[in-house]
Amino acid sequence: MKIEVQDLIHTYPSGETALNGISLVIEGTTPVAVAGQNGSGKTTLVKHFNRILSPTKGRVLIDGVSTTERSTAQWAKKIGYVFQNPDDQLFLNSVRKEFEFGPKRTGIPPEKIEKMLPIVADLCGLGDKLEIHPFDLTATEKKFCTIGSVMMIDPNVVIFDEPTCGQDIEGNNRLISIIRYLRNNGKLCITISHDMKFIAKNFERVVVLCKGQVLTDGFCKDVFAKPTILSQSFVSPPPICRVALGMGLKQSVFETEELVGCIVQNMKRRNKK
Amino acid sequence: MPAVIQVENLSFRYAEAKKYALKDLNFSVEQNEFLCIIGANGSGKSTLCNALMGLIPSYFSGKMKGKVTIMGETTSETTIGNLSKKIGLVFQNPFNQLSYTTSTVEEELAYGLCNMGVPRDEMARRVKEIAKIIRVEKLLKKNPLELSGGQVQRVAIGSALIMKPSVLVLDECTTQLDPLGSEEVFDIVKDLNKDGVTVVMADHDMERVARCADRVLVMSDGEIIALDTPRAVFENEELSKHGVDMPDYIRFGIALREEKLYEGLSPLTETEAIIIGKELVSL
């Protein structure tokens, strides 16, 4: 699937312009991360991909079709958006009902729903919580319940809005396996996150927004090598990368082992001289 | 000097729950200490924060054993109103902090002071002062419900800070803030701590915990499994078994020692890690 954003401007009814001329192309199945300061337009941007929001000016094309040509309900079959706040999304009285609601409404055959449900429930760690009321889940489980209910619609593109907030190691690992699963199944995953460690380790490409515009867009290793530019949008490279840059290494490094490797190489080079 | 917070044999089981969320906790927090609480999700961090604030047992129903004393006052024998003059809590979910009775950020920030009967001039002055600190000056006339997640979080933090509590409890309160914004909030908290405020903070960002905390309390399944200095806690590689990540800087120190490149203590902060790294590459 190809998402093309052309000179996108979005002004809210309050008069506030949240997006101020954004152009970018996302295609393929390589997961893409979106970062940037609070209020930089991240959520506003991704809400255009399935027409939860429509452009004030400019266009968003999905495989060449302008989003305004179809309704949000139609786009939702292809592009799923998981809300930042689970309480904005959950409304039924069991996890199973949440999981079944989307696919039933979008006309997915019952056999397919039945087949997908255990797989998705398992990926989300809710296999044994299907009959539980979503309000009785912990904050993390609620988040995974919203992720699962969007995955159940089996869209080609899945958008996660800050899925990392408040996650521990287990939650993060679960998210990583969901992102991998989506990629392996030919889906495009777009994730908004403030967790740069998480982005650097799991995404090749990162788009950084600042005040409604694209500040920088590219491979993580290039983007995170520019801390001064990033700080304009209140973003800083992940910890190990900051150490590497602080030591004067030229390339960005995200893993401890990689940094130690660089130090060893550097020492060897010096010894030869 | 007596402890500011004294927790004795504290256990708590939520009504309708089978398991105890807190199991026989004993610890104290000294005046002006910065204590961080870490642990996997569901380990009891938020329950403990709520118990410190007195919301347990007066707001959340369930079975409580043992006692919590905040500056000499036993939480189960006083009111939240009384406690809130001494201790401030910033909730994990900022939407739980909002009063839902105000129509502007300005009124929301003033809500607590208003209830305390603080004179109008002083209220206005403190709102202005706090709005500047948490960078919401431009949002003062907005409706709190129109704000972004990160902005609500700032307002939630502001409404606790404005009460000038002697003890500040923060429950994963920067999850929706951008990285530098989040650091900024912690710099504010660190400054308050320097000025004498006792801080208890639950957090998942281990690098930050290592940098800020005087002591780290590790929770697992409702129990305290470690309570020590950040270095002593984080150098323990067993920690990951309890769903707690090690700060990257400590991991860097351990990796350097394994490669026999370095023999000293692991770095706790970015600056310390850079100094060690620089020395190695300039050999």
Element pattern of chain B in H and E = EEEHHEEHEHHHEHEHEEHHH
Helix content of chain A: 25-40%
Q: What proportion strand of chain B?
A: 15-25%
Looking at how many chains there are and whether they match, the oligomeric state comes to heterodimer
Greatest interface and its participating residue counts: A-B, 48 and 46 residues
Largest β sheet strand count, sense and barrel closure of chain B:
6 strands, mixed
N/C terminus separation of chain A: 52 Å
Task: Report the structural category of chain A.
Answer: alpha/beta
Strand content of chain A: 15-25%
What is the overall number of helices of chain B? 11
User: In which range does the helix fraction of chain B lie?
Assistant: 25-40%
Strand elements of chain B, count: 10
Q: Provide the spatial order of strands within the biggest beta sheet of chain A.
A: 6-7-8-3-9-10
Taken from the alpha-carbon principal axes, the silhouette of chain B is globular
- Total number of beta strands of chain A: 10
- List low-pLDDT spans of chain B: none
Decide which structural class fits the backbone of chain B.
Answer: alpha/beta
State the end-to-end CA separation of chain B.
48 Å
Topology:
The complex is a heterodimer of chains A (273) and B (283).
Chain A: E1 2-11, E2 17-27, E3 32-36, H1 42-46, E4 57-62, E5 65-66, H2 72-76, E6 79-82, H3 95-105, H4 110-123, H5 139-151, E7 157-161, H6 169-184, E8 188-192, H7 196-202, E9 205-210, E10 213-219, H8 220-223, H9 227-231, H10 239-246, H11 256-272
Chain B: E1 5-14, E2 22-29, E3 34-38, H1 45-52, H2 55-58, E4 62-70, E5 73-74, H3 80-83, E6 87-90, H4 105-116, H5 120-133, H6 149-161, E7 167-171, H7 179-194, E8 198-202, H8 206-212, E9 215-220, E10 223-228, H9 230-234, H10 248-258, H11 270-281
Parallel strand pairs in B: 3-8, 3-9, 6-7, 7-8
Antiparallel strand pairs in B: 1-2, 1-4, 4-5, 9-10
Helix pairs in contact in B: 4-5, 4-6
